[in-house]
Amino acid sequence: MKLKFLLLAFVALSMFSCGDKDEVLPTAKDIENEYVGGNIVLTNSGNAVDGGAVTIVAVDANNIIVTLTNVVTGHDALEVDAVVSTATRATVYSFAGSKELDGMKVSVTGSILNGVATIDVATAITSEVSNNWGYNVGVDDAADFFDLAYTNGAGTVEWGGEIIPTAEFEANVKVWVQMIMGMTINPINLDFKENGFISGSAVYLHGVTADGSAGPQTLTFENEANYTYSPTDKVLNLGVLGLTIPVPCTVEGGKMVAVISSEFLKPFIPMIPEGEALDAMLASLDTLIPPGLAFFLPIIKTMVKDIVAAVKDESAVFAISLKLQEIQKGV
To answer: Which residue segment(s) compose the domain that 93 sits in?
Structure first.
């Protein structure tokens, strides 16, 4: 009896020993892959990311390099070190990691189940660009939100049927833009959130209120654009409609100043309509311009045509500056 018991015990121990020896434990190598399209659910702070891809490469059994492609605005490909945590015989692999960059921190959390990745990328903007910004024509010096520097080979520009110096052209455009904005869309508030998204509101002074009567109408948008900012390079990367637009930008003394130069706009200038195409586009102003500004409509159309001609001048060198004021949180 005793011998039989010892024999059974020996057989049981042998079975368990063989099982442990043959078992292949899960490692980070198991999830090496490029995750794109149907095998990934990708979000940025909970907001869906379209067109992005993630590649995972194992460093050792517990560490991986996660490469984010077209996920973080302003970074075509960004590598983040992450640690994989999983249990024996687990089918779910979880991982997390983060990376400090100029002006921001990028954190990655994710899991892999049956070859499908669920990954969230959280961007934390650490620079002072993360704030409430806006303009309100007529309040303090916020009316200086628009400025123009313009030169060309001739040193003159046609404006309203007259030939004027470029310096006078600069001043005229600035006054007209400020006046039109002040009488139509004013104020504008933009919230550059810490998570890298932008929300905001604008008051259209000649809108239609909820009861159907004419009056100021507040227009809002939420998380329809995102951004990153490099304090070292002083570049604001805007993500809009799937495009990344790098804009030189400074933040100092409660002001954000973005500068759009002719050098940057060159690829887009040929797309600006002219001639009959421009006339057709300007015809839409007949319904957009409020009755109170109808008197200015012919002048506005002429002004737009003159500006288009000035911009399309191949010898033109110009820069458009947009200045936003800091707005206190909760105001």
So the answer is: 23-125
> Given the DSSP bridges, would you call strands 116-125 and 40-44 parallel, antiparallel or unpaired?
parallel
Cα–Cα distance measured from residue 183 to residue 137, given in angstroms and rounded to the nearest whole number: 9
Reported in sequence order, the residue ranges of 209-281 that DSSP labels E, i.e. its strands, are: 214-230, 235-240, 243-252, 255-261
Give the helix/strand (H/E) hosting 331: none
One digit per residue, pLDDT tens: the chain, 331 residues? Answer: 555 544 444 444 444 444 454 555 678 898 999 999 889 999 988 888 888 899 999 999 899 999 999 899 889 899 999 999 875 555 788 999 999 999 999 999 999 988 899 999 999 999 999 999 988 766 655 457 888 999 999 999 999 899 999 999 999 998 888 888 877 888 889 999 999 999 999 888 876 666 767 778 888 988 878 999 999 999 999 888 777 888 999 998 888 999 988 888 888 888 888 888 998 888 887 776 666 667 778 888 899 999 999 999 999 999 999 888 888 654 4
Helices (H) and strands (E) in the chain, counts: 6, 20
* Model confidence pTM above 0.70: yes
Q: Is residue 2 part of a domain?
A: no
Distance CA 63, CA 67 (A): 13
Q: Is 31 left (phi over 0), alpha (psi -120 to 50) or beta?
A: alpha
Measured between alpha carbons, how far is 69 from 40 in angstroms, rounded to an integer?
13
> Does residue 15 fall inside a structural domain?
no
Look at phi and psi of residue 209 and say left if phi exceeds 0, alpha if psi is from -120 to 50, else beta. Answer: beta
200 lies in a domain?
yes
Token pair in block for residue 274: 């002219």
Is 322 a member of any domain?
Answer: yes
Q: Are residues 206 and 323 in the same domain?
A: yes
